[in-house]
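Lecture notes, unit on binding sites. The following record was shown on slide 14. It pairs a sequence with MRU.
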Amino acid sequence: MTPWTGPTLEVHADHLRTPDQTLLPFELKWLRLDSLLSCEQALREMQVRGAPLIGAVAAFGLAFGLREGKALPVACERLAATRPTAVNLRWALDEVSRALSQAKGELSRAEGELSTFASAPGSAAGSNAFSRAWQRACEIAADDARINAAIGHHGLALLRERMALRQTLGRPVAPGAPLQLLTHCNAGRLATVDHGTALAPVYAAHAAGIPVHVWVDETRPRNQGASLTAWELMQAGVPCTVVADNAGGWLMQQGRVDAVIVGCDRVAANGDVVNKIGTLLKALAAREAGLPFWVACPTPTLDFTLPEGALIPIEMRDARELTHARVRLPDGAVVQAELMDAAVSALNPAFDLTPARLVDALITEHGAVPASQAGLLGLNSRSSLSQ
Ligand code: MRU
Protein backbone atom coordinates (compact mmCIF):
# COMPACT_ATOMS: atom_id res chain seq x y z
CA MET A 1 0.00 0.00 0.00
CA THR A 2 1.22 3.53 -0.79
CA PRO A 3 2.36 5.23 2.41
CA TRP A 4 0.02 7.97 3.60
CA THR A 5 1.69 11.37 3.94
CA GLY A 6 -1.30 13.70 4.11
CA PRO A 7 -3.09 15.97 3.75
CA THR A 8 -5.47 14.97 6.53
CA LEU A 9 -8.37 17.06 5.30
CA GLU A 10 -9.53 16.85 1.70
CA VAL A 11 -11.94 19.59 0.69
CA HIS A 12 -14.25 18.56 -2.17
CA ALA A 13 -16.97 20.59 -3.91
CA ASP A 14 -19.63 19.88 -1.29
CA HIS A 15 -18.06 17.58 1.31
CA LEU A 16 -14.88 16.76 3.23
CA ARG A 17 -12.87 13.57 3.47
CA THR A 18 -10.63 12.75 6.39
CA PRO A 19 -9.26 9.58 8.02
CA ASP A 20 -11.36 8.18 10.87
CA GLN A 21 -8.76 8.47 13.64
CA THR A 22 -10.59 6.13 15.99
CA LEU A 23 -9.76 3.25 13.61
CA LEU A 24 -6.03 3.93 13.20
CA PRO A 25 -3.53 2.33 13.19
CA PHE A 26 -5.43 -0.84 12.33
CA GLU A 27 -7.46 0.60 9.47
CA LEU A 28 -7.16 3.69 7.26
CA LYS A 29 -10.79 4.43 6.45
CA TRP A 30 -11.94 7.77 5.10
CA LEU A 31 -14.91 9.53 6.62
CA ARG A 32 -17.24 11.63 4.48
CA LEU A 33 -18.36 14.79 6.28
CA ASP A 34 -21.20 16.62 4.56
CA SER A 35 -23.52 17.95 7.26
CA LEU A 36 -23.52 19.79 10.56
CA LEU A 37 -24.38 16.55 12.34
CA SER A 38 -21.58 14.53 10.72
CA CYS A 39 -19.01 17.19 11.73
CA GLU A 40 -20.44 17.47 15.23
CA GLN A 41 -20.30 13.70 15.72
CA ALA A 42 -16.80 13.35 14.24
CA LEU A 43 -15.53 16.03 16.64
CA ARG A 44 -17.28 14.61 19.69
CA GLU A 45 -16.23 11.01 19.00
CA MET A 46 -12.67 12.17 18.18
CA GLN A 47 -12.79 10.67 14.70
CA VAL A 48 -11.15 14.01 13.95
CA ARG A 49 -8.97 15.46 16.70
CA GLY A 50 -5.98 17.72 17.28
CA ALA A 51 -6.52 21.44 17.83
CA PRO A 52 -5.96 22.79 14.28
CA LEU A 53 -7.96 20.02 12.58
CA ILE A 54 -10.78 20.49 15.09
CA GLY A 55 -10.88 24.19 14.13
CA ALA A 56 -10.97 23.55 10.39
CA VAL A 57 -13.68 20.89 10.61
CA ALA A 58 -15.79 23.12 12.88
CA ALA A 59 -15.58 25.92 10.30
CA PHE A 60 -16.91 23.62 7.57
CA GLY A 61 -19.50 22.23 10.00
CA LEU A 62 -20.83 25.74 10.43
CA ALA A 63 -21.06 26.19 6.67
CA PHE A 64 -22.98 22.90 6.39
CA GLY A 65 -25.32 24.08 9.15
CA LEU A 66 -26.12 27.24 7.20
CA ARG A 67 -26.71 25.19 4.06
CA GLU A 68 -29.23 23.16 6.08
CA GLY A 69 -30.99 26.34 7.19
CA LYS A 70 -29.81 26.22 10.82
CA ALA A 71 -29.55 29.55 12.63
CA LEU A 72 -25.94 30.67 13.06
CA PRO A 73 -25.97 30.74 16.90
CA VAL A 74 -27.52 27.28 17.09
CA ALA A 75 -24.95 25.75 14.75
CA CYS A 76 -22.11 27.55 16.58
CA GLU A 77 -23.32 26.32 19.95
CA ARG A 78 -23.64 22.71 18.80
CA LEU A 79 -20.11 22.68 17.39
CA ALA A 80 -18.53 24.61 20.28
CA ALA A 81 -19.95 22.11 22.77
CA THR A 82 -18.08 19.17 21.21
CA ARG A 83 -14.58 19.89 22.67
CA PRO A 84 -13.99 22.57 25.30
CA THR A 85 -10.21 22.93 25.54
CA ALA A 86 -8.73 23.51 22.07
CA VAL A 87 -9.38 27.19 21.40
CA ASN A 88 -8.99 26.70 17.63
CA LEU A 89 -12.58 25.48 17.60
CA ARG A 90 -14.01 28.69 19.06
CA TRP A 91 -11.54 30.75 16.99
CA ALA A 92 -12.68 29.14 13.73
CA LEU A 93 -16.37 29.61 14.57
CA ASP A 94 -15.69 33.29 15.37
CA GLU A 95 -13.77 33.71 12.11
CA VAL A 96 -16.64 32.32 10.02
CA SER A 97 -19.20 34.36 11.96
CA ARG A 98 -17.13 37.51 11.44
CA ALA A 99 -16.87 36.83 7.69
CA LEU A 100 -20.67 36.46 7.57
CA SER A 101 -21.24 39.75 9.40
CA GLN A 102 -18.87 41.53 7.05
CA ALA A 103 -20.59 40.07 3.98
CA LYS A 104 -23.98 40.96 5.44
CA GLY A 105 -22.81 44.54 6.00
CA GLU A 106 -21.50 44.81 2.44
CA LEU A 107 -24.74 43.45 1.02
CA SER A 108 -26.89 45.81 3.11
CA ARG A 109 -24.85 48.77 1.96
CA ALA A 110 -25.11 47.63 -1.68
CA GLU A 111 -28.85 47.12 -1.51
CA GLY A 112 -29.52 50.10 0.76
CA GLU A 113 -31.57 47.87 3.03
CA LEU A 114 -31.04 45.27 5.71
CA SER A 115 -30.49 41.89 4.17
CA THR A 116 -30.68 38.77 6.22
CA PHE A 117 -28.62 35.64 6.41
CA ALA A 118 -31.25 33.94 8.55
CA SER A 119 -31.84 31.36 5.96
CA ALA A 120 -34.44 28.94 4.81
CA PRO A 121 -32.64 26.07 3.03
CA GLY A 122 -32.29 26.92 -0.65
CA SER A 123 -33.17 30.62 -0.19
CA ALA A 124 -30.90 33.21 -1.83
CA ALA A 125 -29.85 34.58 1.56
CA GLY A 126 -29.15 31.06 2.80
CA SER A 127 -27.04 30.20 -0.19
CA ASN A 128 -25.12 33.51 0.13
CA ALA A 129 -24.40 32.70 3.75
CA PHE A 130 -23.32 29.18 2.87
CA SER A 131 -20.94 30.35 0.14
CA ARG A 132 -19.33 32.99 2.33
CA ALA A 133 -18.96 30.53 5.24
CA TRP A 134 -17.59 27.84 2.92
CA GLN A 135 -15.11 30.31 1.45
CA ARG A 136 -13.84 31.33 4.92
CA ALA A 137 -13.63 27.68 5.99
CA CYS A 138 -11.52 26.94 2.88
CA GLU A 139 -9.22 29.84 3.80
CA ILE A 140 -8.89 28.56 7.38
CA ALA A 141 -7.96 25.10 6.11
CA ALA A 142 -5.45 26.42 3.56
CA ASP A 143 -3.95 28.78 6.15
CA ASP A 144 -3.52 25.92 8.59
CA ALA A 145 -1.35 24.03 6.10
CA ARG A 146 0.69 27.19 5.41
CA ILE A 147 1.05 28.06 9.11
CA ASN A 148 2.33 24.57 9.89
CA ALA A 149 4.80 24.62 7.01
CA ALA A 150 6.16 27.88 8.46
CA ILE A 151 6.37 26.28 11.93
CA GLY A 152 8.34 23.48 10.27
CA HIS A 153 10.74 26.03 8.81
CA HIS A 154 11.32 27.87 12.12
CA GLY A 155 11.50 24.64 14.10
CA LEU A 156 14.07 23.26 11.69
CA ALA A 157 16.36 26.18 12.56
CA LEU A 158 16.11 25.19 16.25
CA LEU A 159 16.86 21.57 15.40
CA ARG A 160 19.92 22.59 13.38
CA GLU A 161 21.16 24.72 16.31
CA ARG A 162 20.65 21.85 18.71
CA MET A 163 22.45 19.48 16.35
CA ALA A 164 25.43 21.84 16.24
CA LEU A 165 25.33 22.50 19.99
CA ARG A 166 25.30 18.90 21.09
CA GLN A 167 28.84 18.46 19.74
CA THR A 168 29.92 21.02 22.33
CA LEU A 169 27.94 19.66 25.28
CA GLY A 170 30.65 17.23 26.30
CA ARG A 171 28.64 14.11 25.47
CA PRO A 172 30.27 11.81 22.91
CA VAL A 173 28.07 11.76 19.78
CA ALA A 174 28.81 9.23 17.07
CA PRO A 175 29.17 10.74 13.58
CA GLY A 176 25.79 10.61 11.81
CA ALA A 177 23.94 9.82 15.05
CA PRO A 178 20.37 11.09 14.78
CA LEU A 179 19.05 14.03 16.72
CA GLN A 180 16.91 12.50 19.47
CA LEU A 181 13.55 14.17 20.00
CA LEU A 182 10.78 13.25 22.37
CA THR A 183 7.14 14.06 21.70
CA HIS A 184 3.84 13.56 23.49
CA CYS A 185 0.40 12.81 22.05
CA ASN A 186 -0.10 13.51 18.34
CA ALA A 187 0.74 16.95 17.03
CA GLY A 188 1.50 15.59 13.60
CA ARG A 189 -0.20 15.61 10.22
CA LEU A 190 -3.21 13.86 11.68
CA ALA A 191 -3.81 16.69 14.15
CA THR A 192 -3.83 19.34 11.42
CA VAL A 193 -4.95 19.93 7.87
CA ASP A 194 -1.37 19.14 6.81
CA HIS A 195 2.27 18.98 7.99
CA GLY A 196 1.53 18.87 11.74
CA THR A 197 2.79 21.35 14.30
CA ALA A 198 5.30 19.63 16.61
CA LEU A 199 6.13 17.14 13.87
CA ALA A 200 6.46 19.77 11.11
CA PRO A 201 10.11 20.49 12.05
CA VAL A 202 10.74 16.74 12.22
CA TYR A 203 9.40 16.27 8.69
CA ALA A 204 11.39 19.31 7.53
CA ALA A 205 14.57 17.85 9.04
CA HIS A 206 13.90 14.46 7.49
CA ALA A 207 13.34 16.07 4.09
CA ALA A 208 16.59 18.05 4.49
CA GLY A 209 18.53 14.84 5.12
CA ILE A 210 19.15 15.56 8.82
CA PRO A 211 18.98 12.27 10.72
CA VAL A 212 16.26 12.38 13.40
CA HIS A 213 14.78 9.78 15.69
CA VAL A 214 11.60 10.39 17.69
CA TRP A 215 10.77 8.89 21.07
CA VAL A 216 6.98 8.69 20.99
CA ASP A 217 5.13 8.73 24.32
CA GLU A 218 2.30 6.22 24.03
CA THR A 219 0.00 8.90 25.58
CA ARG A 220 -2.45 7.06 27.76
CA PRO A 221 -5.34 6.78 27.98
CA ARG A 222 -6.28 7.15 24.28
CA ASN A 223 -2.80 6.27 23.02
CA GLN A 224 -2.57 9.00 20.39
CA GLY A 225 1.23 8.59 20.46
CA ALA A 226 1.29 4.83 19.91
CA SER A 227 -1.72 4.72 17.55
CA LEU A 228 -1.31 7.92 15.56
CA THR A 229 2.14 9.54 15.93
CA ALA A 230 4.12 6.33 15.52
CA TRP A 231 1.88 5.35 12.58
CA GLU A 232 2.26 8.61 10.70
CA LEU A 233 6.03 8.82 11.35
CA MET A 234 6.42 5.31 9.97
CA GLN A 235 4.32 6.20 6.92
CA ALA A 236 6.75 9.07 6.32
CA GLY A 237 9.81 6.88 6.90
CA VAL A 238 10.96 8.78 10.01
CA PRO A 239 12.63 6.49 12.57
CA CYS A 240 10.72 6.38 15.87
CA THR A 241 10.30 4.28 18.99
CA VAL A 242 7.23 4.16 21.23
CA VAL A 243 7.90 4.42 24.96
CA ALA A 244 5.60 4.14 27.96
CA ASP A 245 4.54 7.53 29.24
CA ASN A 246 6.67 7.01 32.33
CA ALA A 247 9.90 6.34 30.41
CA GLY A 248 10.66 9.87 29.19
CA GLY A 249 12.30 11.10 32.41
CA TRP A 250 14.66 8.16 32.47
CA LEU A 251 15.57 8.61 28.79
CA MET A 252 16.37 12.26 29.47
CA GLN A 253 18.52 11.39 32.50
CA GLN A 254 20.40 8.89 30.36
CA GLY A 255 21.33 11.56 27.81
CA ARG A 256 19.22 9.88 25.14
CA VAL A 257 17.07 12.93 24.35
CA ASP A 258 18.29 16.17 22.74
CA ALA A 259 15.03 18.14 22.95
CA VAL A 260 11.34 17.73 23.74
CA ILE A 261 8.81 19.08 21.25
CA VAL A 262 5.04 19.00 21.70
CA GLY A 263 1.91 20.72 20.38
CA CYS A 264 -0.71 22.66 22.30
CA ASP A 265 -4.46 23.08 22.56
CA ARG A 266 -4.53 26.55 24.08
CA VAL A 267 -1.91 29.05 25.21
CA ALA A 268 -2.90 31.88 27.56
CA ALA A 269 -1.66 35.47 27.29
CA ASN A 270 1.10 34.80 29.85
CA GLY A 271 2.45 31.87 27.82
CA ASP A 272 1.02 29.06 29.98
CA VAL A 273 0.41 26.03 27.77
CA VAL A 274 -2.44 23.55 27.95
CA ASN A 275 -1.77 20.32 26.07
CA LYS A 276 -2.51 16.61 26.36
CA ILE A 277 -2.42 15.19 29.89
CA GLY A 278 1.15 14.22 30.78
CA THR A 279 2.79 17.16 29.01
CA LEU A 280 3.57 18.88 32.35
CA LEU A 281 5.59 15.88 33.57
CA LYS A 282 7.70 15.95 30.42
CA ALA A 283 8.36 19.67 30.83
CA LEU A 284 9.45 19.12 34.45
CA ALA A 285 11.70 16.23 33.48
CA ALA A 286 13.22 18.28 30.63
CA ARG A 287 13.97 21.19 32.99
CA GLU A 288 15.57 18.79 35.49
CA ALA A 289 17.73 17.33 32.73
CA GLY A 290 18.65 20.76 31.30
CA LEU A 291 16.96 20.00 27.98
CA PRO A 292 14.97 22.42 25.82
CA PHE A 293 11.20 22.06 25.97
CA TRP A 294 9.58 23.49 22.84
CA VAL A 295 5.90 23.97 22.08
CA ALA A 296 4.79 24.28 18.44
CA CYS A 297 2.05 26.90 18.57
CA PRO A 298 0.07 28.18 15.58
CA THR A 299 -1.28 31.63 16.43
CA PRO A 300 -4.94 30.50 16.27
CA THR A 301 -4.08 28.44 19.38
CA LEU A 302 -3.23 31.59 21.37
CA ASP A 303 -6.01 32.87 23.60
CA PHE A 304 -5.38 36.45 24.65
CA THR A 305 -8.76 36.67 26.37
CA LEU A 306 -7.32 34.56 29.20
CA PRO A 307 -4.49 36.14 31.22
CA GLU A 308 -3.28 32.81 32.60
CA GLY A 309 -3.50 29.12 31.88
CA ALA A 310 -5.38 28.25 35.08
CA LEU A 311 -8.48 29.76 33.43
CA ILE A 312 -8.40 27.34 30.48
CA PRO A 313 -11.17 24.73 30.74
CA ILE A 314 -9.83 21.19 31.01
CA GLU A 315 -11.92 18.59 29.22
CA MET A 316 -12.94 15.67 31.44
CA ARG A 317 -13.56 12.55 29.37
CA ASP A 318 -15.32 9.25 29.92
CA ALA A 319 -13.51 7.06 32.47
CA ARG A 320 -14.04 4.18 30.04
CA GLU A 321 -11.11 5.52 28.00
CA LEU A 322 -8.95 4.60 31.00
CA THR A 323 -10.60 1.39 32.10
CA HIS A 324 -10.74 -0.11 28.60
CA ALA A 325 -8.38 -0.35 25.62
CA ARG A 326 -8.93 -1.00 21.94
CA VAL A 327 -6.91 -4.02 20.91
CA ARG A 328 -6.53 -6.18 17.81
CA LEU A 329 -6.90 -9.90 18.41
CA PRO A 330 -4.80 -12.49 16.55
CA ASP A 331 -7.79 -13.16 14.23
CA GLY A 332 -7.75 -9.47 13.20
CA ALA A 333 -10.89 -8.47 15.11
CA VAL A 334 -10.57 -5.12 16.91
CA VAL A 335 -12.33 -5.09 20.27
CA GLN A 336 -12.59 -3.05 23.45
CA ALA A 337 -10.90 -4.96 26.28
CA GLU A 338 -11.21 -4.34 30.01
CA LEU A 339 -8.00 -3.32 31.77
CA MET A 340 -9.16 -3.33 35.38
CA ASP A 341 -11.82 -4.51 37.74
CA ALA A 342 -15.19 -3.11 36.69
CA ALA A 343 -15.75 -1.70 40.21
CA VAL A 344 -12.62 0.48 40.13
CA SER A 345 -13.33 4.20 39.90
CA ALA A 346 -11.27 6.20 37.40
CA LEU A 347 -10.77 9.89 36.60
CA ASN A 348 -9.85 11.00 33.09
CA PRO A 349 -8.71 14.63 32.67
CA ALA A 350 -7.67 15.03 29.02
CA PHE A 351 -5.27 17.98 29.32
CA ASP A 352 -2.87 19.60 31.76
CA LEU A 353 -1.22 22.95 32.25
CA THR A 354 2.50 23.58 31.74
CA PRO A 355 3.55 26.94 33.20
CA ALA A 356 5.26 29.36 30.81
CA ARG A 357 8.47 29.26 32.88
CA LEU A 358 9.02 25.64 31.80
CA VAL A 359 8.58 26.40 28.08
CA ASP A 360 11.81 27.46 26.37
CA ALA A 361 10.16 28.40 23.09
CA LEU A 362 6.79 28.73 21.46
CA ILE A 363 7.42 27.94 17.80
CA THR A 364 4.87 29.94 15.82
CA GLU A 365 4.51 30.58 12.11
CA HIS A 366 6.20 33.95 12.74
CA GLY A 367 9.23 32.46 14.50
CA ALA A 368 10.23 31.09 17.90
CA VAL A 369 9.76 33.18 21.07
CA PRO A 370 10.17 32.36 24.77
CA ALA A 371 6.73 31.52 26.19
CA SER A 372 7.10 34.38 28.67
CA GLN A 373 6.90 36.72 25.65
CA ALA A 374 3.69 35.20 24.27
CA GLY A 375 1.97 38.55 24.82
CA LEU A 376 4.07 40.06 22.05
CA LEU A 377 2.42 37.70 19.58
CA GLY A 378 -0.91 39.42 20.25
CA LEU A 379 -0.30 41.73 17.35
CA ASN A 380 -0.48 38.80 14.95
CA SER A 381 -2.68 36.42 16.86
CA ARG A 382 -5.99 36.94 15.20
CA SER A 383 -4.90 37.54 11.64
CA SER A 384 -4.74 34.73 9.15
CA LEU A 385 -2.04 34.45 6.51
CA SER A 386 -4.49 35.00 3.69
CA GLN A 387 -5.91 38.26 4.98
O1 MRU B 1 -7.50 15.15 22.60
P1 MRU B 1 -6.73 15.38 21.34
O2 MRU B 1 -6.21 14.12 20.72
O3 MRU B 1 -7.48 16.26 20.37
O4 MRU B 1 -5.46 16.20 21.86
C1 MRU B 1 -4.47 16.58 20.97
C2 MRU B 1 -3.33 17.26 21.59
O5 MRU B 1 -3.24 17.41 22.78
C3 MRU B 1 -2.32 17.82 20.67
O6 MRU B 1 -1.05 17.81 21.26
C4 MRU B 1 -2.72 19.25 20.35
O7 MRU B 1 -4.04 19.31 19.90
C5 MRU B 1 -1.84 19.87 19.37
S1 MRU B 1 -2.25 19.32 17.76
C6 MRU B 1 -1.27 20.03 16.63
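Take-home: The chain is about 35% helix and 15% strand.
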